[in-house]
Amino acid sequence: MEGWDPNTKSTLTQIPLLTTKAGPRDGAVWTQRLKEEYKSLIAYTQMNKSNDNDWFRISASNPEGTRWTGKCWYVHNLLKYEFDLQFDIPVTYPSTAPELELPQLDGKTQKMYRGGKICLTVHFKPLWAKNCPRFGIAHALCLGLAPWLAAEVPILVDSGMIKHKDDATTSTET
Amino acid sequence: MDDELLELQRQFESAQQAKSSIRLSERNVVELVQKLHELHIIDFDLLHTVSGKEYITPEQLRHEMVVEIKKLGRVSLIDLADTTGVDLYYVESQAQHVVSDDPGLMLFQGEIISQSYWDSMAEEINDRLQECSQIALAEIATQLNVGSEMVTSVLEPRLGTLVKGRLEGGQLYTPAYVARVSAMVRGSARGITVPTNLSAVWSSLQQQLHEMDGASGVAIDGSFFQSLFNGIVKEGEVLGSLRAGVHWTPNVFAIAQKECVDSFFSQNSFISYENLNKLGISQPVQFLQSRYPEGVPLVSVFVHPSMIEMLDAATEDALERGSWIDSLSVLPASFGPQDAFKIMSLCPSVQLALKSNKALIFGESYVFSNGFVKVVYDQMEKELEHFSVSGSSGIIPSDDSQFVNAAKAGHDSNRSIESFDAGSESGKSKQAVEKGPKKRKGKSAGNAGAPESVSDNQEYVPTKSKKNQRKGKDTSSLQVSDSKTGAKKESVRAKEDNLSIPSEEWVMQKILMLVPDFEEQGVDDPKTILRPLANHLRPMLINSLKARRKAVFTENADRIKRLLDNLQRKLDESFLNLQLYERALDLFEDDQSTSVILHRHLLRTAAASILDTLLHNLDIHNKLKNGIEVEEAQNSESVSLSPGERTAIAKSFPGSLSNKALAVVDALEGKRVETFMDAFREIVEESGLLLKKLDKKLERTLLHSYRKDLTSQVSAETDPVSLLAKVVSLLYIQVHHKALQAPGRAISVAVSRLKDKLDDSACKILTDYQTATVTLLALISAATGDEEDCSSDRILTRRELLENQMPALKGLVLSASQS
C-alpha cells in the first residue's frame, strides 16, 4: 500500500469492499456486482461529502452500467478546475481495472495515454490485482484519479496548459 | 433492470446531489474566533483546553465541574483539570467561584467537597461507631485522607444527629460507652476519701478498661475521664474541691480534717504543724490563722493564748522565787525548744523580766532569774579560789603575748616587765590564783580565742552564742576568721591556745555540783541547759580570773626583776669562768684521750652548775609570770639537778624556749664543750638574758684574780693530794696563762706537758710529788678498809713523805708567782 499518501489510504480502507466477481457479460451476477458497485460508490460519496471533500459526479450512461460519464474537479489556489470524466467497464472486469479518461486534457500532459486515459502509478496494478474482486469503481477513483488530479492539476495550471474558466473567458474577452 | 438497482441508482444520485458539509481548518477557526473577538461579537472570556483544540467558556467549565462534583461529592482539582481538559490554573480559579456560589461546597486542600459527601461520610462513621462503640478521629482522618482537625470540624455539627456519639479527646464514643465510662469515673470518685491526684486515678481506670476491652480497646485519654469527672462534679454527684485541675479533695475528707483539727485544738489548745501535715494540710500556718485568728503561730506548733497565759504564770512564779524553770517541762511534749523560746518571748512576765534584766533565757527554753544566776556565779567564783593546780605544765596568763613578743624581738627582759606593769595597772585588783587543770585544747580553744565577744552575745541571745560555739569548734572556720584578723592577732591567738582557763566542761561540772537540781529534775540532757549557762558564766569567770592574775603580776614583777638581775649576775660570772676554762682545753687538743677527759670534766663541773642555775631561775621566773606562788626561801645558791629534772624543767618551758632548753640539756650530756656553749648561748638569748664575751683585758684580770686565788689556796692547802691539782693549775697559769681545770686522771698528762717548760729541779720535784701522789691514791683505793693489814701504815708513810715534799712544791709555785 506504499506509494499513496496516508490520507488516501485511510479513505480507501473506509470504502466498503465488494464480494461478487462478475464482468459485464456475466448477466445476473453482473447486476449483483453492479449493485455492490453502487453501494460502495454511495458510501464513498457520502464519506467525501461529510469530509467536505466532494470531487466528482458520475452516473451510468447505459442501462447495463458498462459506460460511466460525469465530471471531476480539483481546487487549486482557491480556483476550481473542472474536467469531464468518462470510462468503460472492460469485459475482463473486475480483473482489469477501468481506464479513466479526461478527454479535455488529452495532449496537455505527458501523464496520459492517447484518448485522455490517465497514467497510473506503478503501484496501482499490482494492488488492484491483489484485491480483485474486492475493489470496485469507487476504489479505482480513490486510488487512481484523486492522486493524479492532486499531482497534475497544479503543474498544468502553473505551466499555463489549462486555465480557469473565468480566466479563460476574461482572456478571450480581452 | 431490477428495482433494487434502480433504487441504488437513485440513491447514488441523491447522495451525489446532497449538499456537502463545509469544513474549516483549525487555523481558519482560530482566526475566525480572533476576528470575532476583535469585532466584539464574542465579548466574554474563552478558555482553551489543554489540547489546544477546543474553546470552552467559563460558564461551561463551571457547569462541567459542578456536574463532576455532584457525581461523588468530592473531587480533587487535579482530577477536575483532567476530566475537563482545562488547565489547572483555570480550574482552580473557577473552583473558587463554584465554591463561593454554592454554600454546600467547600474547598479543602485542593479538593472540592460537598456537604452531602460529609453527610454520607458521617453516616458511614456512625455505622462503624455503633459497631465498635469507639473510633479514633485519627483513624477516620487517615481513612478519609483529610486532617483530623477537618474531621473534627465536620463531625462536630453532626454529633447527636447523624453521628450518635460523643467526641472526646480525639475519640468518638457512643453514648452507651460514655455512660459506662462515666459510671466508672463516678464510682472511683466516690470511692476516694483522701486528697488524690486524679491523673493517677485515671491511669488506673485506663488500665482497667484496657483489661476489659482486651487488645482491641483504644487507649482512652485522661482528659476524657477528666471531662466526665468535671461533669459529675458540676452536677453535684460527688462533693469536693478541685485544685490545679488534678488535685481532688473530697468533701468528706475536708470535713474530717476540720473536725480533727477542731477537736484537737479545742482539747489541747495547741496543735503541731506536723499533725496538720499528717492530715494533709500543706500550709498549716495559713490554715490555722484563718480558722483561729486568736491563735499564735510558733515554729512548729500553733497555740491558743491560754497556753501562753499558763506558761506566763509558771515563769512568773519561778522568777519571783529567784529560781529557774524549764519551759519545756511546763509545755506539752510536742513543743520543740525553738517553740519554747518563741512562746516565752510572748509571755508578758518574761518580756518584762528581760527588759529589766531580771531574767535570762538559756538553751532556748530555760528561764533563769538573775538572782539565781548571781548566786551560782558567786559560788563559782569562790570555787575558783580553791581550784588547785594539777601538773607542772607551763601556764601562761592570757595577756602575756606582749612578753613573748618582746623576748622574741630581743628586748631586755626588764622592758617586758615594765610593759606588764602597765598592763596590770589597768586591770582590776581582784585576787585570784588560776590553776588550769590541764592544757586547753580543741573545742574550748575557739571559745577562748574571743571570750569577750562571745560573752557579749551570750547575755541575751543564747542561740547565737551556741552557734558561735559550734563555729568555734570547727577549726577551719576558726582559721578563716584568723586569717582575716591578720598576722598580729594570729600570733596572739596562737599563744592563747596555750592558755589555761576553766574549760566549759569544768564549769558545767561545777554548776552541776552546786545546783544538783538540774539532774534531779529529770532534765534529759543536762548539757542542753548547762552549756549555755556555763557559756554565760565562763566569760565572767575568765574576766575575774584575768583580773586576779594581773594582780599577781604586779606583785610578782619585782620579784621577777630581782630574780633576773640575780640570774644575770650569776651567769656573767660563771660563764666567764667557763669560757676561761674552755680556753685551757686548747692546750690538749692534740692529745685525743686527754682532751675528751678534760671536756667531760668541764661539762660535769662548771657547765652543769651554770646550766642548773639558769634552768632553775628560768623555772621560777616562769612560775612567777604565771602568777604561781613560789617560796622565796628556795633561792639557794647551789642548785644541782639530775639529768631527769633538767629535762622535766626544760619541757615545762613554753614553745621554742623548751626546744632550746632540751637541746642544751642534751649537749650537757655530750662530750664537747663547744656544742654546749653554742646551745647555752642560744637558750640564754631566747630567754632574753645577755652573755658577756671574754676579751683579752677581761681574761687577764680574771686570770690574775684566779691566780691570786689559787696562790692563796696553795699556800693555805694542807691536803697533799688536792695540793697537786692546784699546783698544777697554778703552774699552767704561770706557764701558759690558761686556767686549766683538770681531773685527777689528767694530772699526769698535764704534769708531763709542763716538763719542757720548767727547769729540771722544779720538774723533778713535780714529777716526784706526782708519782708519790699516784702511789698514795693507788694505795688508798686498794685499801680494803680493814685495819689489820699494813696498807694503812704504808699510806701513812706515803702521806708523810708527800707532806714533806709539800713545802718544796709550794715553794716552786709561790716563788714563781712572786717572781
Automatic annotation (TrEMBL), chain A:
What Gene3D superfamilies does the record tag this protein with? Ubiquitin Conjugating Enzyme
Determine if Ribosomal protein is one of this entry's keywords. no
Biological process according to GO: protein K69-linked ufmylation
Look up and give the organism this protein is from. Answer: Castanea mollissima (Chinese chestnut)
Q: Which family does it belong to?
A: Belongs to the ubiquitin-conjugating enzyme family. UFC1 subfamily.
Example GO CC term: the record gives: cytoplasm
Keyword list (alphabetical) reads: Ubl conjugation pathway
Listed GO MF terms? UFM1 conjugating enzyme activity
Role: E2-like enzyme which forms an intermediate with UFM1 via a thioester linkage.
Q: What is this protein called?
A: Ubiquitin-fold modifier-conjugating enzyme 1
One Pfam family of this protein, by short name? UFC1
Q: Which CDD domains does the UniProt entry name for this protein? A: UBCc_UFC1
Catalytic residues, per the record, are C119 (glycyl thioester intermediate)
What SUPFAM superfamilies does UniProt report for this protein, alphabetically? Answer: UBC-like (SSF54495)
